[in-house]
Amino acid sequence: MTPEEQLYMTQLKKLKQLRESGIDPYSHTQYARTHTLSELRERFDELEGQALRVAGRLMALRHHGRISFASLQDASGRLQLMAREEQLGKERYLQFVDLDVGDIIGACGTLTKSRRGEISVDVIEFTLLAKALRPMPEKWHGIKDVEIRYRYRYLDLLTNPTSRDVFIKRTQIIRAIREFMDAQGFMEVETPMMHPIPGGALAKPFVTHHNALDMDLYLRIAPELYLKRLIVGGFEKVYEIGRNFRNEGISPRHNPEFTMMEVYWAYVDYEAIMCLTEELIHYVAVRVLGTPKFTYQGNEIDLTPPWARIKLFDAISDHTGVDFAAICTDEEARVAANELGLEVMPTDDRGRIIDEILKKRVAPKLIQPTFLIGYPVEISPLAKRSQQDPSLTERFQAFIGGLEVANAFSELNDPIEQRERFEEQMRRREAGDEEAHQMDWDFVRALEYGMPPTGGLGIGVDRLVMLLTDSPSIRDVILFPLLRSE
Question: What is the per-residue pLDDT for 427?
């Protein structure tokens, strides 16, 4: 039996003894607190000497004869409890001494300072609200513990203030996004999570089955096509913040379940969306951090607009020496990729290779906020062609700190061309590309009723949180990331 198992058995025995003595540590349905622990610190001068009630988890215990000290933690912070035999009486004092780190208690007492000057609650009475049966972890270190932090996030949050701060900031970031979008006149909407046809992105979906209708459904890979239906329906400024699901690998930048915001704005193009993007992210940083300047993984970043705007092929040429504007065939693209040391499949086409070079050789070097523009049509099936060069689209991706944080374009609203793009994607699927877009006849039908010129935007909320909390992995900013079974 391991030491942890031995302690667990000891705690079970202690629980049995408590119940035999008439104490059920799980019987309480509520405990009326008068203050949070942070309030007691902030308002000490006002509350000193007053009777009050607090509750939380015991994080440390120290016993010194007839006086004991405990560190109590609630969601707002920690504060010292001071338990004295003189105050509690011998029997109740011994029961306090018998408490364990991890136990959740309520305490009634007066606010004071200890002899060492520490703000404390001098306990008059206490109530055991929940007995901890497993030991509290003391600290985290090493790669093995990173896995434990993700798997047992509740322990991570209890013991790691840095982790707690990340998720507090995550909430603040999402709140700030909504503040900005609402102030700009956008309406927040909700669209389906289960789709009869997966669409809106090049990705492999998760499949489920609806028994009553006897039909397969797909967890959404993007809300795009439904949001654009709303533009057809007459709404002009809409956004949605929600979960997407893609049946892809797990990496420091990818989780199969992730949060996106998508935005659609009628009568504007991708240039207006670029301005919206830089203004939004700048606003969020200032709202949450108090400044547009911060450090991400050792790099100083400044989000102050305007951001750099660089053509995709120029960026690839600058960082690899390869001019893809002059490469027209799939075979030439495969040769160029091999010369760069990238592994490519014989079936990989020019578009996929460009995308792979961007991800592997260009994106990691884009530290300051940068918009890459001018993406090939073959990797942008829902974007409008550039009037200057019909082989390219009016599309951009935004990169900060080496992370892609946004993808946007002037939306394709020509139903004939959209159908042809879908047909080309279907040919790619038949050739073995599982991420190619499926045909969505209803979406084509919606476009046939007329969709105004529209700019669309997708922002990876998790990656934005990574940036603003200096987190190296997406799993650091998702409360419960997907992991292999133990």
Answer: 86
- Domains in the chain (CATH in brackets) are 3-130 (2.40.50.140), 154-307+368-476 (3.30.930.10)
**CA atoms of 383 and 379, how far apart (whole Å):** 9
Sign of CA dihedral 220, 250, 483, 241: negative
Instruction: Give the pLDDT of residue 138.
Output: 66
Cβ atoms of 294 and 285 closer than 8 Å: yes
Q: Which two tokens stand for residue 225?
A: 């096509």
Determine contact, residues 223/240, Cβ cutoff 8 Å: yes
The SS3 call for residue 182 is helix
Task: Provide CB contacts within 8 A for 96, sequence distance 6+.
Answer: 68, 83, 88, 123, 126
The residue to which tokens 């607090």 are assigned: 54
Beta bridge partners of 458: 262, 407
CB 455: neighbour CB atoms within 10 A? 23
Residue 401 gets the label, from left (phi > 0), alpha (psi -120 to 50) or beta, of left
pLDDT digits (tens, 9 = 90+) for 237-273: 999 999 999 998 888 889 999 999 999 999 999 999 9
- Phi/psi at 384 (5° precision): -75, 145
Report the pLDDT value the prediction gives residue 140, as an integer from 0 to 100.
45
Predicted confidence band at 144 (pLDDT cuts at 50, 70, 90)? Answer: very low
CA 181/CA 184 separation, integer angstroms = 5
**What does the block give as tokens for 164?**
């707690």
Amino acid 199: pLDDT: 82
Q: Comparing C-alpha atoms, which of 48, 118, 55, 45 is closest to residue 82?
A: 118
Given 3-state DSSP classes, what are the helix, strand and coil percentages for the chain, each rounded to the nearest 5? 40, 25, 35
Q: pLDDT tier at 202 (50, 70, 90 boundaries)?
A: confident
Residue 249 bridge partners (DSSP): none
* Burial of residue 65, with CB atoms counted within 10 A of its CB: 0-12 exposed, 13-18 middle, 19 or more buried: exposed
Average pLDDT (180-196) is: 97
Backbone angles phi, psi at 372, to 5 degrees: -95, 135
Mean pLDDT of 90-101: 96
CB contact set of 147 (below 8 Å; sequence gap of 6+): 483
Q: What pLDDT does 159 receive?
A: 87
- CA pair distance 377, 375, nearest whole angstrom: 7
What's at 219, amino acid-wise? Answer: L
Tally: H helices and E strands in the chain = 16, 18
Helix (H, G, I), strand (E, B) or coil at 237: strand
CA angle 219, 221, 227 (to 5 degrees): 100
Q: What is the CA radius of gyration of the chain?
A: 29
Question: Residue 464 corresponds to which tokens in the numbers above?
Answer: 């934005």
